[in-house]
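pinned: reference chain
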Amino acid sequence: MRLAKYLAHAGVASRRGAETLIATGRVSVSGVVVRDPALDVDERSGVAVDGQRLSGAEPRVCYAVNKPAGVLSTARDTHGRATVVELVPAGSLRLYPVGRLDLDSSGLVLVTNDGELANRLTHPRFEVPKTYRATLAGRPVGQRVLNALRAGVELDDGPAAAARVRRIGPHEIELEICEGRNRQVRRMCAAVGHPVTALRRVAFGSLRLGRLPEGAHRRLSSAELERLRAL
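pinned: its C-alpha cells
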C-alpha cells in the first residue's frame, strides 16, 4: 500500500494531509525519514509519525456534528480553545474534521478518521456541493443580488459563483457552492454589497444537518457513508 494511503487508513490525516506530513519529514519507515508518498509499505514496515509507531488501520468512524459558532474546526488547539473534535466520543481514535467552518460560522461538519472518505469529500476534482444559509446585512435581498451570485463575482483569488442560490427571507439566502476556498461565502456576499451577519452550513453533499441540535453529534449510518462515497 502507498505510504500516504497507509497513513490515511491509520487515521492520521486525510490523503492530502498525509502527503504534507511526508513532505515535511515527519514520517519515518524503519527509523529512516522518507519523503516519497508512493513508497510501498505494510504493517511490518515500521511506519511512524513524529517518532510514534503506527499499529495499522483503526476502525473507521464518521460523525456529523452541528458546530456552534466560537468552536474551532480543528482537532486540537494550542491555546486551549474548544474544538469540534471535543464534541464527539473520540476515545483513542485519531479524529479530525472534514469540511471546516470558520470560527464565526456554525453548522454541519464531519469528524472522522477515514482518510479516503475525507479525500473524496474535499478534493477539488470531486466538486462535492456544500449548502449554506446566510443572514445578510443591508437592504432586503433583491433579484439583482441573486443573479450576481449565480453569474459569479470576482474575488482576490479568482472568480467564484454559486451553483444554486435562492432567497428564503428578506435578509436570508440559501446557496450551494462546489469549492472550498477560505471564507468563500462571506467574501462572495460582501462582494455584492451584503456582508454576512450569520452563516450556517446545512448540507454537505447528500448529508443534511436536519434537526441535529447545536453542539450535538450523531454517527453516520452505513447507507449515509455509501452515499457520500458515491458523490
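why pinned: The chain is about 20% helix and 30% strand. Residues 15-23 form the longest helix (9 residues).
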